[in-house]
Amino acid sequence: MSRHVAIVTDSTAYLPPRTMERHGITSVPLTVVLGDRALEEGTEISARSLAEALQKRRPVTTSRPSPQVFAETYREVAGTGATDIVSLHLSSEFSGTYDAAVLAAREAPVPVRVVDTGMVAMALGFCALAAAETAEAGGTVDEAVTAAEKRAAGTSAFFYVDTLDYLRRGGRIGAAQALFGSALAVKPLLQLDDGRIDLLEKVRTASRAIARLEEIVAERAAGAQVDIAVHHLAAPERAAALAERLRTRVPGLAELHVSEVGAVIGAHTGPGLLGAVVSHR
User: Fold this and answer.
1) Contact, 276 vs 217, CB < 8 A?
2) Residue 8 and residue 248: Cα distance in Å, rounded?
């Protein structure tokens, strides 16, 4: 019997639903806790509802999927005929999702390789796509994992946020960095580095910060064939304008995705987020 490698990821990959269907990728949802209600990302709470709650300063937290949810997912995927599973997830620096998947994998009916990609958003999504394409071509588990890791190594993510306060509240960036930014009234540019969010540059105005974000992405994409994803939260005009400018500035652009982040990432960045992921093929 030929082996079939299935790909599982989580809801923070923000892959387009049609893309997931086309490649047979299964997503496990993280949870957003809004007040006293626990809501699944992607199905029970929208980015728009999340943004409105944040603007009203309602308490918002996030939670990993339970090992039981992963165990059920692995059973369902195995039931479709998969003989092996590669489970790719957001950085363990952000969430206990990876740990929950590892616990569930021990009891799965088929072998499960769980991978901490060190990525998030479409930086994670591009890794899942690379693994799925390898599996579709008949690749082994090792080959699918290698493809995802290679894609991760060639992927960079940069973010502009209006304020560091949301990241500070969620423990995703140090209080000293957040306080420093607020004291100087700067607009921060962030990067995903070694699975963590780090302050990259401090720029005086929002317009200059967004222009600098565009420059950084264009520089990182220069001379190569790349995929780019532009993310936002409650800033569709900013995202569309940035995407259009990048379309003209990046000669090696293969695919360009524009999407609003989901509630989990949005809870930690706040409205006004503008991000760009550059992924070398």
Assistant:
1) yes
2) 34
Q: Of 183, 238, 198, which is closest to residue 214 (Cα–Cα)?
A: 238
pLDDT at 183: 46
Amino acid type, 143: E
CA distance 52 to 140: 44
- Which amino acid, 134? T
Q: Which of 152, 154, 181 is nearest to 165 (CA)?
A: 181
Please give the Cα distance from 181 to 14 (Å, whole number): 29
Predicted TM-score (pTM) of the model is 0.91
| DSSP state letters, 13-65 | G---HHHHHHHTEEEEPPEEEETTEEEEBTTTB-HHHHHHHHHTT--EEEEPP
- First-last CA distance in the chain: 32
Count of CB atoms within 10 A of residue 49's CB? 15
CA dihedral 133→151→155→32, nearest 10 degrees, is: 60
Q: What is the pLDDT of residue 181?
A: 47
H helices present in 137-229, as ranges:
141-153, 165-169, 175-184, 206-221
**pLDDT reported for residue 252:** 94
Lowest average pLDDT, out of 77-86, 128-137, 154-163, 192-201, goes to 192-201
Q: Which helix (H) or strand (E) holds 247?
A: helix 236-249
Q: Collapsing DSSP states into helix, strand and coil, what is residue 171?
A: coil
State the pLDDT at residue 119.
96
